[in-house]
Amino acid sequence: MSAAPVGVIRGDKDGVLQAPQQTPQDPRLLGRDVRRIAFSETELRARVAELGADITAAYPEGDLLVLGLLKGSFVFLADLVREIRLPLHVDFLVASSYGESTVSSGDVKLVYDPETVLEGKHILLVEDIVDSGKTLHKLMHLLSGRAPRSIEICALLHKRIAKELAHPVRFVGFDAPNEFLVGYGLDHAENFRHLPYVASLR
Ligand code: IMP
Ligand code: MG
Q: Best of 125, 129, 194 to mutate for ligand 1, by most ligand atoms within 8 A of CB?
C-alpha cells in the first residue's frame, strides 16, 4: 500500500488546474516512494528548447565553450547543446560536494579539471541545480581566474535560497521547490540519475 501513487494538482500557465499527475509505478525507483513529479518529461523538453534558443540569441558571435559540471549536468547538457544553434565546444568539470548526504557540505573539490584552454573563451557553465550556491560560488571564483572572455551560468533548476552566490545565474530552467530532487541527472547516493523526469523523494 505504501507504493500507491500520489496525485498532485498543478496549475498551467493560465492558472487553470489540470488533472492530477500520477507518480508512476516506476521500476527505476528501487521501491522508493516519490512524493511527486516536480517536472515531467514534456515540461523539461519544452523548457530546454527555450533555454537553447535564449543561449543561441545571447552569443551572436558563437564560439562558445559549454562546460558541464559532472555528474549532475550530463543529461541536461546533452539535451541542451542539441538546442543551441551555434558552433560550440563541450568539456566537463568534476566537483564533489555532497557525498551520500542530502545536505551540501560546502566542501567543494575539483576532481577533474578540463584540459581545454579557458583563456579568451565565452564559457557557459552548466549545472543541474543551484541549492546553497556554494558549489557555483567556488567554481566561478576558480574559473574567473583563468581569464575567460565571458563566463555565465546555466542551471536547469534553482532553489532560490542561495546566499553565497555572488554571480547571478543568467539562464535558469525552472525555480525548484525546496525539496530533495532526483532524476534528469540529479542523484541521491548515485541513484535515479536516469529518470527522464524530475521527482522529489519522500
Ligand atoms: P549547492 O552547492 O548547495 O548549490 O549544491 C549544488 C550541488 O548539490 C548540485 O550540483 C547537485 O549535485 C547537488 N544538489 C543540490 N540540491 C540537490 C537536490 O535537490 N537533489 C540532488 N542533488 C542536489
Ligand atoms: Mg549530486
A: 129
Candidates 39, 67, 96, 98: which one to mutate for ligand 1, based on the most atoms within 8 Å of Cβ? 98
Closest C-alpha to ligand 1, atom 5: 131
DSSP state of 170: S
Asked, for residue 163, whether it belongs to a domain, the answer is yes
99 within domain boundaries? yes
> Does 184 map to a domain?
no
- Model confidence pLDDT, tens digit, residues 84-93: 999 999 999 9
Based on the structure, what is the number of domains in the chain? 1
Cα–Cα distance, 114 to 89 (Å, whole number) = 12
- This prediction has a pTM of 0.84
DSSP per residue, 94-127: EEE--TT-SS-----EEEE---S--TT-EEEEEE
Q: Kindly report, residue by residue over 107-130, the tens digit of the pLDDT.
A: 666 777 777 889 999 999 999 999
Residue 131 appears among annotated catalytic residues:
yes
Q: Which contiguous run of DSSP H or E holds residue 51?
A: helix 41-58
64 part of a folded domain: yes
With a CB cutoff of 8 Å and minimum separation 6, the contacts of 160 are 175, 176
pLDDT top residue among 27 and 23? 27
